[in-house]
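Hi R.,

Here's the chain you asked about this morning:
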Amino acid sequence: VVHRAFAARGLGAMDDRPCRLRVSTWNVAAVNNNPFEYHVAHDDPAYDALMAAVEALVESPGERDVPVGVVFPHDAMSSLCEAMRGAGFDANDVDATAAYYRDRIAPRLIVSGFLRDETLGAKRLCSMPDRVTNTIALANGDRACRPSVVNGYEPPLPDLATWWNAWRAFMFDVTLPLLDAKTGETRATTPCHLLRKITRAKYPATTETEERLSLPLQLTCLAVFDAVLVHVVNQLAPVATWHGVKTGLVRALLRDKTARACEILASPEVAASSADVVCLQEVSASMV
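And the predicted structure, written out as tokens:
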């Protein structure tokens, strides 16, 4: 909370006289690193065309609503299982996850059966792993982004093969220096080991099997989620178009986000506003 009135008068100037405080609030949304999270006003007509095309596809996919197994085929799943075993995940759980994928995920349609499935949201099988691997803060202040449409990942993703090679390498082969918040020490880890188990106690929509398999199952659902998005945007627009739109959004909304927020708070426009108190919500640790 930034309290201008007391900051200007000083604590010694406080008295018992009643006063009226004018309060404003700003949700900085530091946790949000998806440039497509909200519809924004944009000068580039390609942005509105892309957003309208995605909306039309989600609302009425028609023949483009293909099975998950077409977008994330079984050989990709075999490659994922190999990577999970190599990363130390329980081999029996990985095998059970492969069977779960074969029987319960691969036959689903990518839009009506996956993207629009509310039970996946209730179980957090996509959103939980996305939260911890979407944009990872590094010990040196930099950030590492998972190869995905929904973050600031910079290289273009023109096809699923390019995406998969980058995604698997990032999740299982790249070692990142992370700052331990409790000890203040730097520790090295791979993104796949940032995931935590999903429990039925907290998310009751989850079955006992899904709870037991939650780590490899989260990785599987996250891979499918990213694959579907890469497939969708490349179906709807040339990579130069959609990636160009994304790059512009990242530059405007995400790059140097904390510094830009601080600049706005210190700007003459905010200083001249009528608010005595400015409340900030969902700020990152870098702003504290």
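The two ends are 10 Å apart (CA to CA).

Let me know if you need anything else.
M.
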